[in-house]
Amino acid sequence: MIWRTIILALLPATAFAQEMQVDRQQVLECFRAAPLDAAPPACIGDAAAACQRLPGGETTLGAAECLNAEAGVWDDVLNAEYRDAMARICDHGGAALAEQLRDAQRVWIAFRDTECGLRDGIWAGGTIRVIIAGNRVLRETTERALELRDLGRIE
Q: Domain span at residue 27?
């Protein structure tokens, strides 16, 4: 994940002494509880918030690490949902639709990177930018994971 690399590059070496982690199961439960074709659930960010209450998580750098940790779990979900959506699309519409999905995903990645870069640029003068960037990556990733899950499905 390019933004994780960028954000981590902004952190001083002392921040790597203990990498913050989130409860993976909590994130997966949030994903499973999200209804089809609905607004992103309120539980997005809860695992990062719990992480931020742990020692080291209350600092700017710790908070950014917690956001990145949750975004990493959601990125795993997104990748699994992309594979599932690709299989559904191939079964339904064949290679042409699968190619469109692949192209759409590539465009989405470019959009996400550009959108996150914009937010990073706006806040380039302050340390808050690592939190804003981490939050934006988390939001974009969760929304896309849910979109891919819902693609072609009707409740």
A: 20-150
